[in-house]
Write a structure and sequence with these properties.
heterotrimer; A mainly alpha; B alpha+beta; C mainly alpha; A: mainly alpha; 3 helical TM bundles of succinate and fumarate reductases; 2 domains; two-stranded antiparallel ribbon; 2 strands; flat; C: mainly alpha
Chain lengths: ~130, ~250, ~120
């Protein structure tokens, strides 16, 4: 049973009202960096398919100051994405019990971070030595 | 006996009289308080001594009834366990819980909240109905542990005030209702998961959530509704692909 | 109540999110920061090496998976974030975002096939 003459407050701009919401929006906006990098790779792939001159030109463009700056920003955003991803990961998993005890959330976050470090090292070795 | 130190704090409160005011307005008072006083006691002082028309819900004064939820400096809190001393010297701004229509002053229309709670079949649905003669259900501590925190909800609706997805779309089932749903699914005495899947699988079920996570942050009882909702995204996904591959066994488990 | 189709897109979003969380930072650092700045030898990403990688089976798989999953993850999240900002472009927006991810995947696949097997 709802009341008459109720007042509904506007929701617009909700994300500005609270540091928690603002951090959430930053987290979500990291998607722009992920998309941008994927497109960057796609362009690089296209240049590769066009031949050595096109590819070398693309590589040279990556070394320009504005490209470095933008890509560093992308790096920071993707690193923030990685951190926040593991931070919320425990919320998406059912409770894990080991030896009759509940595995705490921080252990799950740590496991994720460690997996990321190991995977990154794998990528590093593959990139340098393959 | 030493008199407790009394200071004054400025409490600014949203006022709205239905059918009289076109829109809410703010009204402020200077309230004498001692360090042990809660925001609720501050409001009660205003009602008792300064302005008897101020309207707000409260009951237990000890964070178990869930009645006194309000926005305190923009954050959803229980007024009875928020203390005035922490807001000196700037004072506080008290408003009704966000994302709900305002009925009067600090009182919100909770009918949608209650409807959501009712909609999730919040009762045990055993596989085989049990008779009194069979005695009580048996449950190990481990089995109770699987759902215990979700059973601690006091229906204060702070999580709905926290959830921007509910704020933008009131059809979203919402944190407390989905946590309550999960509380029954996770209970070893219950076998009603299949019946509740329809609610989970809907666009306004778990899929209305984007894991903002603020609901769990504001919950005064550690229910962690964010976890209850997002765990069920995996369940919903499993159910979706099961349904895709074996259409006959829709949602059954 | 109608069953939502979100699980398909959420799974792709999740896979892309996990992949980009695990290797995204290192991948971005190496390919578009370290190599252009010379922190790592430019030889690691020169034309012959890049071509050899793109022509190998594992290289094709790696490039396709990264581009595809990163796009599905990013565009799914972008769609939801636009909604969070109150930008309601309607059901077409959902099709556009996921459509772009599919398009990117197809373009990458086409280019990888075009590059051949060396």
């Amino acid at each position: 049973m709802s009341a008459p003459h109720t007042y509904t407050r506007p929701i617009a701009g909700w994300w500005r009202r609270n540091p928690f919401y603002r951090a959430y929006i930053v987290r979500e906006m990291t998607c722009v960096a992920v998309i941008a990098y994927a497109l960057e790779l796609l362009v690089g792939l296209a240049r590769l398919a066009q031949g050595p001159e096109a590819f070398e030109t693309w590589l040279a463009r990556l070394a320009r100051p504005w490209a470095i700056v933008l890509n560093c920003v992308a790096l920071l955003l993707i690193a923030f994405h990685a951190w926040t991803w593991f931070e919320v990961m425990p919320k998406t998993l059912p409770f894990i019990n080991v030896g009759g005890r509940r595995v705490p959330d921080r252990a799950i976050v740590a496991a994720g971070a460690i997996a990321a470090v190991l995977a990154s090292l794998l990528v590093l070795f593959a990139f340098l030595y393959r | 006996m030493v008199e407790p130190r009394t200071r004054n704090i400025r409490i600014e409160c949203l006022r709205y009289a239905p059918g009289v005011d076109a829109a809410p307005r703010m009204q402020a008072w200077d309230v004498p308080f001692t360090d042990d006083m809660s925001v609720l006691q501050g409001l009660q002082y205003i009602k008792d001594h300064l302005d008897g028309s101020v309207t707000f819900r409260w009951s237990c004064r000890m964070a178990v009834c869930g009645s006194c939820g309000m926005q305190i400096n923009g954050i959803p809190k229980l007024a009875c366990e928020t203390f005035l001393r922490e807001y000196m010297p700037a004072g506080i701004r008290v408003e009704p819980l966000a994302h709900f229509p305002i009925v009067r002053d600090l009182v919100i229309d909770q009918s949608d909240f209650l409807a959501k709670l009712e909609s999730v079949r919040p009762y045990l649905i055993p596989a085989v109905p049990r008779t009194l003669a069979e005695g009580p259900y048996r449950q190990t501590p481990g089995e109770m542990d699987a759902y215990y925190q979700y059973s601690q909800c006091i229906n204060c609706a702070l999580c709905y005030a926290a959830c921007p997805q509910y704020g933008m779309n009131a059809k979203f089932t919402g944190p407390a209702a989905l946590a309550l749903l999960h509380r029954y699914n996770a209970d070893s005495r219950d076998a009603g998961k299949a019946q509740r899947m329809e609610i989970i699988n809907a666009e306004d079920g778990v899929w209305g959530c984007t894991l903002v996570g603020y609901c769990s942050e504001v919950c005064p009882k550690g229910v962690d509704p964010a976890r209850a909702v997002n765990q069920n995204k995996i369940e919903s996904t499993k159910d979706y692909f099961r349904h895709l591959l074996m259409p006959r066994g829709s949602g059954s488990r | 109540m109608k069953r939502s189709n979100k699980p398909i897109f959420w799974s792709l979003f999740g896979a892309g999110g996990m992949l980009s969380a695990l290797i995204g930072p290192m991948l971005v650092f190496l390919t578009v920061v370290a190599v252009p700045l010379g922190l790592v030898s430019k030889q690691t990403m020169d034309y012959p090496r890049a071509l050899a990688f793109a022509q190998s089976g594992i290289g094709k798989l790696a490039v396709l998976v990264v581009i595809s999953l990163f796009l599905f993850h990013g565009l799914h999240r972008l769609y939801h974030t636009l909604h969070d900002f109150g930008v309601h472009i309607g059901p077409g927006a959902k099709a556009l975002c996921h459509g772009l991810a599919i398009l990117g995947t197809l373009v990458a696949a086409y280019l990888l096939v075009k590059l051949g097997w060396g």
